[in-house]
Amino acid sequence: MSVETTLADVRQRAMAGLSEASSLGEILEWERLYLGPKGELTVFLRSLGALSPEERPIAGKAGNALKVELTALFEARRQALATADLDQRLEADRVDVSLPGRAQTIGAAHPVSQMIDDLSDIFALMGFQTVFGPEVETGRYNFDLLNIPSDHPARDVWDTMHVDAPGEIVMRTHTSPMQARVMEQTDPPVRVIVPGRVFRYEAQDASHEWMFHQLEGLAIDRNITMADLKGTLTEMARQLFGPKRRIRFRCDFFPFVEPGVDFAVDCAICDGKGCRVCKHTGWLEMGGAGMVHPRVLTGVGYDPAVYSGFAFGLGIERLTMMRTGVDDIRAFAAGDVRFLRQFARAA
Ligand code: DAH
Predict the structure, then answer these.
(1) Tens-digit pLDDT profile for residues 131-148
(2) Which atom from ligand 1 is nearest to the alpha carbon of 313?
(3) Which of 73, 121, 265, 305 is the most exposed place for a label (fewest CB within 10 A)?
(4) Nearest Cα to 6, choosing from 26, 50, 142?
(5) Active-site residue set
(6) Chain segment 249-274, per-residue pLDDT in tens
(7) Ligand 1 center to 49 CA (angstroms)
(8) Which of 256, 263, 297, 317 to mutate to test the pocket of ligand 1 (most atoms within 8 A of CB)?
(9) Buried b (16+ CB within 10 A) or exposed e, 225-257
């Protein structure tokens, strides 16, 4: 076979192979067959030495021309296939940017915190400032200044958690100690509410927790009477539970008030007719209240002949239970988000 025929044959097969190659893998295989170190054309060009001196330059020229031609065609084809290959991979790996992102879960205020916020708003409109006090107290503020001397049996009413420290240091059993703290710092008139945690050394059940929240209220001025107390709490109940609510006072004893009362609101859930939430009495107990005892006033340097005032303390979990119908106080501090989520509201 002459050199021309051989090259024509190689060229024809190479051209056919080139047009058949349809992937990057196939075109590289084609390169190996024809242009690679052991490829047909390479082998042909290397064998030129065996030709006669006359044939050699002609065969060399034709061989090199074919190599240039095939190399150019190969490069163009490889480029095209590489681009197609890239396009295909990009298409396959495509990220759909229109998919919604992963939602951020934003926390919501705890139902007790919501109630504290609502109470602060309600009382702010009646001129009360919201203040906070320490959860660890001295016996002096938790008891003594509230007219509960250490030898008095009334001290036993508060089952107390004592802090292992010198002196009488306790987890506050109520928010009432803030009455004395506020009055010591301020001259009358005083109008404050004090939301916060309180602690009791007692067993838990559906309506008792060892830790819960109270809202203390205190108003001191000239000529404050029970009517002001009644009006203030009635307004609070209306704001919280609706326009029709009524307040009931019954005599009760607390060492730091005289007279002392417990107070209830008629049940908003059954309109006072009697239901599961109010235990079929038509009334819901909210807390204790009364006219601030003269001894409490003297204890902080206020003159009871000039100033009088009222105080109240109510259970915040209890108010929340009335508003929502939740019937187990332990749910509030249990930390189960499935429970808490039901009360989430937009900030
Ligand atoms: N501190 C009382 C308690 O925890 C509640 C209370 C009753 C507060 C009467 C008051 C009040 O301010 O006047 O049992």
Answers:
(1) 999 999 999 999 999 999
(2) 8
(3) 305
(4) 50
(5) 158, 174, 200, 214, 257, 311
(6) 999 999 999 999 999 988 888 888 98
(7) 116
(8) 256
(9) eeebbbebbebbbbbbbeeebebbbeeeebbbb
Three-state SS string over 200-212 comes to: CCCCCECCECCEE
CB of 174 closer than 6 angstroms to any ligand 1 atom: yes
Considering the entire predicted model, what is its pTM? 0.71
pLDDT the model gives residue 120 = 98
CATH architecture observed for domain 111-341: 2-Layer Sandwich (3.30)
The token duo for 203 is: 């067993």
Decide: 169 and 137 in contact? Cβ < 8 Å: yes
Neighbours of 194 (CB within 10 A): 24
Between 25-29, 66-70, 267-271, 307-311, the lowest mean confidence (pLDDT) is in 267-271
Taking the centre of ligand 1 as the mean of its atom positions, its distance from the CA of residue 194, in whole angstroms, is 12
The H-assigned helical ranges of 300-346 are 316-324, 331-334, 337-341
Probe ligand 1: pick from 254, 261, 308, max atoms within 8 Å of CB?
254
Q: Return d(Cα 57, Cα 53) in angstroms, integer.
A: 7
First to last CA, the chain: 92
Residues in the chain: 347
- The domains of the chain are located at 3-92, 111-341
Return the ligand 1 atom nearest residue 175 CA: 1
Q: Whose CA is nearest to atom 3 of ligand 1?
A: 174
The token pair at 339 is: 């429970």
Between the CA of 233 and the centroid of ligand 1 the distance, in Å, is: 14
45-95 pLDDT per residue, tens: 898 888 888 888 888 898 899 899 999 999 999 998 899 889 989 999 988
Structural tokens at position 275: 């239901």
39 lines ligand 1 (CB under 6 A): no
Please work out whether the CB of residue 200 comes within 6 Å of at least one atom of ligand 1: no
Q: Angle, to 10 degrees, between the axis of helix 24-34 and the axis of helix 3-20?
A: 170
Q: Report which protein residue has its CA nearest ligand 1's atom 12.
A: 312
